[in-house]
Amino acid sequence: MITALDHIAIAVPDLESAVARFLDDFGLRHDGNEVVEAAQTTTAFFSVPETHIELVHPLNGGGPISTYLEKRGGGLHHLCFRTDDIDADVARLKEKGYQFIGDEPTPGAHGSRVIFIHPKSCDGVLIELSEPSETQA
Ligand code: CO
Predict the structure, then answer these.
(1) What is the 3-state secondary structure (H, E, C) of 68-86?
(2) Interval between CA 96 and ligand 1 midpoint (Å)
(3) Which of 6, 21, 126, 129 could form a disulfide with 80 if both were Cys (CB 3.0 to 4.6 A apart)?
(4) Is this prediction's pTM over 0.85?
(5) Where in the sequence numbering do the catalytic residues fall?
(6) What is the pLDDT of residue 22?
């Protein structure tokens, strides 16, 4: 069951200056940076009431965010819905004909389990489902 809009992710070509913008210019609370090896990204999270903003940047210059930046130079990348049972939601949505990127959830930031619904199943918008870790929830 989907329980919240967990975060909005922005692909950024320069992580340091983007972190400075959200921290110094916009005054948001910086929760820290985290490398997510499985997604080939470095992420930076900021808290805003009821949701977060995620900056995603290629890890070691590779991965899907690198391809995205080459094509678009940065931009709004995906919406993420928090779920309390990702396996049940994936099964339920697959039943309805939704296509996913990858067969099962993979490790996300903060020990979460995540999976992406293919944009062609959602009018061109990339949507992530995220089940927080026990300690995070
Ligand atoms: Co995300």
Answers:
(1) HHHHHCCEEEEEEEEECCH
(2) 23
(3) 6
(4) no
(5) 128
(6) 86
